[in-house]
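Design a sequence for this backbone.
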């Protein structure tokens, strides 16, 4: 009986020690590095916004107990750009908007400011020009009709000012001569957001009386 009682007391002591260790470990402060994505709010759909960097690195201090229930995947930092006009800005990262639990402390943040570039988006109608796969076309007695002859592009104003036409994907004239008609994609230059339409119809026709 005495042996069984001592064995029981040892088991209880072990369980109490294990429970105490468990809570001590869970309650001990630890540090962790996390990445928080940047999102923005803007009231103007005609603005293109670029934020650099797109994430901020943070070092937080908390306990393992808190980390077990803390979901960093839902953590985002929103910046309100509604009052900003086109231009380049240095904006402080408003980490107070994260609304972290009170038992999570922010130890470090990098960077503490963000570069925000806002560009005004405009539209422009430009002609389409065919480009050719062959450098030397074996026959030149033909015409190409492009439908539609113009496309509408959307891009920042500083990009549009340097665009006077858009090329098609390289055309195989030998093949086009046989099938007479193809659909070709428009090749967008850097900075163009959208093209309408994205494809045009190319119609091949032999010149008469030449």
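Sequence:
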């Amino acid at each position: 009986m005495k042996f069984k009682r001592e064995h029981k007391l040892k088991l209880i002591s072990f369980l109490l020690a294990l429970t105490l260790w468990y809570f001590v470990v869970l309650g001990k402060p630890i540090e962790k590095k996390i990445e928080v994505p940047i999102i923005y709010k803007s009231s103007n759909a005609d603005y293109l916004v670029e934020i650099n960097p797109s994430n901020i690195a943070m070092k937080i201090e908390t306990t393992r107990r808190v980390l077990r229930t803390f979901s960093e995947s839902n953590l985002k930092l929103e910046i309100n750009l509604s009052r900003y006009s086109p231009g380049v800005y240095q904006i402080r990262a408003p980490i107070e908007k994260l609304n972290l639990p009170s038992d999570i402390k922010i130890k470090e943040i990098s960077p503490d400011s963000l570069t925000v570039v806002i560009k005004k988006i405009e539209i422009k109608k430009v002609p389409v020009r065919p480009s050719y796969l062959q450098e030397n076309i074996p026959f030149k007695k033909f015409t190409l009709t492009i439908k539609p002859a113009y496309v509408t592009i959307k891009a920042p104003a500083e990009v549009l000012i340097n665009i006077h036409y858009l090329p098609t994907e390289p055309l195989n004239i030998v093949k086009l001569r046989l099938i007479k008609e193809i659909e070709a994609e428009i090749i967008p230059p850097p900075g163009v957001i959208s093209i309408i339409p994205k494809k045009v119809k190319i119609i091949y026709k032999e010149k008469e009386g030449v």
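The domain at 29-119 is CATH 2.170.120.30 (RNA Polymerase Alpha Subunit; Chain A, domain 2).
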